[in-house]
Structures are given as C-alpha cells and as structure tokens.
Amino acid sequence: MSIRQRLYPNLDNNEILVMHCSKARFVYNLGLEQRNLWRKDRTARINYRTQAKELAEARQAFTWLKEGSSAVQQQALRDLDKAFRNWWNNQAHFSRPTWRKAGINEGFYIRDLSVRRINHKWGQVLVPKAGWVKFRLSKPFSEIEASTSAHVTLDRSGRWHASFTQAQLGLKREPTGALLGLDMGVVATVTTSEGQILDMLELLKKVERQRKRRLERKLARQVKGSNRRARTKLAVAKISARESDRRKDWIEKKTTDLVRDYDLIVVEALKVKNMTKSASGTKDKPGKQVSQKRGLNRSILEQSWGMFRQRLTDKATHATAPVTIVSINPAYTSLRCSECGHTDKGNRKSQAVFCCLSCGYTNNADVNAAQNILAAGLAVTGRGGTSHANKHSDPMKRQLLEVVA
C-alpha cells in the first residue's frame, strides 16, 4: 500500500531530483543490458550483489556518477533484480524487464525514510543530496510517519509526487450478504444487476477538450526537439493529467463503495487488449469501418475497465471481511433473457432496450446483462444461480461459463 502526496521542490531541489531520476534510469538500463548479454555457457553469475559491487567501482572511476546518491542507484539495481525474479517466478503475469525511457520512467526510491511535519497542511521528506523537500499533507501524518520507504516520481505534466509505502491496510467492512453482478459498457460505464447505473462523470469540460484538440494539432505541426514543441507538449500533458486524475478518483470511490457493500461481486472477464485492436488491416487486406472502430477503441480505453477490475480485486483481497470476486465469460450475456434463458440476437432491440422474443420480458439491456452475469457467477460458486446454458443445443452456448478468478 502507498500514500501518494504532492511534492513541491524549489529550483535547487528540482535539479537534484531530476539528476537522481536520470542516474537511476542509467544504472537500471546498464544493469539490464549486462543481464541481456549474459549467456548460459558463462560461469560467472549476475545478480544484485555482483552488480552492486561493480557499481561501487564505477562510482570511484566516474565523477559524474559519484555526484548522485549511492543509495538511489543501488535501489535501481534492486528494482531490476526484483523485476527479473518476478518474471522468472510468474511469466504468465510478469513480462521480461524492458528499458526505462526518459520522459516516461522518471523516478527513484528512498529507502532510509525520514519525514517531519511542519504544520497541519505541510510536511517534509529528506531526499539524498537535496535535503528537506516540502510535500502537501492530504492524509494523516501518523500514516505517513509509519512508512518505510518512498517512491519519488515526475509525471509528464511536470508534477512531483512521493508515494510512501507501508503495510497493506485492509478495507474496513462488515459482512452484508449482498450479491451483485456488474456489466461494463461504453454508454453506461457500469450497470449493476440491481438496476443502478454507475456512469463516469465527464472527465474534461467542453473548453478543456477543445483546447486539448487545438494543442494536439499544433504539436503535430511543430518541429521535433524545438523549445516551442516542448512547451506545447507540456500543456497537453497538464490537461491529460487532469483527465487521468478525475478518472482515478471516480474509480477509487466507486470500487470502495462496492467492496464495502457486497460480499460477492461478479464481473466479466473482458480481454480489453483484444477488444481495442486496430481494424486498419494490411495493405493487401484493408480493414472495414476503421474510423468507427477507432472511436470505439478510444471510448473503451477512456472507461478504464482494466483499472476498475484491478482496483476492485485489490480492495476485495485486503478487506477485513471476506469479499469474493468472480469473473465469468461474457459470451451471450447481453443476448440472453434473464427470465427464461432464451438467447437470440433479436432480443436486443437497441443499445438500451431488451425485449425477449420468447417470453416478452422487457428491461434495460445493460441491467438484463448484469442479471445474467450475476446468475452465471452464482452458478459458478454453487449459490443457486443458473447460466441457462443447458437449454441450448449450440456447443458455444453450453460452454458459457468460464471461471477466470
């Protein structure tokens, strides 16, 4: 668990923080290159200890490297070693470590953490070589004081943050016995089986969207590497940062409410990466309706279905009272009647209207899908639900349920 606070370094401190980011990235990439060049026929092994020893020798040989903090650079090698261990132990979840890039991966760790409080609004953290750097207190100082380390980062909009890490604290909740199915969508972000629509608020105002569009067009015309292009790029990043902050804030609040109120939550196992692939095709076989698919992909990514599910799972895992998250195969959930189980493409009259051709059941299409998702999740967990899959001869429909988590 981490508590993220906004840092406000002065000009001198800012230069040192940028230096730490640069040197930590250099050490990480150099260590990665060394590991990539290693071959099985070589007797000498490469691990954190060998690379840390070589780093100490390099700091003695190169003054520019010695100007940085040894603790920050050693932590970069620890991050690299941890990344490789994660990849070795679970390649299904972790990918092979890749290069850290300037302008994207800007950050470093502080291990021996020292913090102090100035007043009820401000605190300070001790950064190697930079001294005390102010940060804004948005959480109780007692929680930050209990932290063991901090991750200092610089985002694309030029904002510094410090994420204070500490032991995971469980979300406080009491068992409710309530069950819920969630249907993810584009028009309605989340629709529940109880008929409630959780719609993400407009992330950017009309004026902000127009200004971002003008800046992006201006950016495309400017010369790469120029100062004016850098200023335009920063202006775009600041607007995008506001959009991202509002999205994260909405997701954090809604997932907290859901985990606190429900003991079982059933979600769809959506493969967002596959769903947002480009439809442009190739030169020999060009795609169809490319612009429409591009707009759909943009809308899906704006909803951040993956982040919503991940935060829901994280909070359920560490809740003080057990919460079960079940993922099911979403196939046919939007076409099947939640009352009689009849599955037909004609059941869905429009994006919002569902009317069963067999029994005449009518409801909001997303609510009906959420009810089917809940029923499938109950069938998976043995709590009395039914998928209605046995009512159809189509083998794809009989294989409706697939437990993912």
In summary, what is this structure?
This protein is an alpha+beta fold. Helices cover 42% and strands 16% of the residues.
Describe the structure.
- β6 and β7 form a beta hairpin.
- The chain contains 12 helices and 14 strands.
- It has 2 domains: 169 residues, no CATH class; 206 residues, no CATH class.
- α1 packs across α4, α2 runs antiparallel to α4 and α7 packs across α10.
- A 7-stranded antiparallel β-sheet has the order 2-6-7-1-5-4-3. It has a 5-stranded mixed β-sheet with strand order 10-9-8-11-12. The chain has a two-stranded antiparallel sheet with strand order 13-14.
- It has 405 residues and is an alpha+beta fold.
- The chain starts with a strand and ends in a 7-residue tail after the last helix.
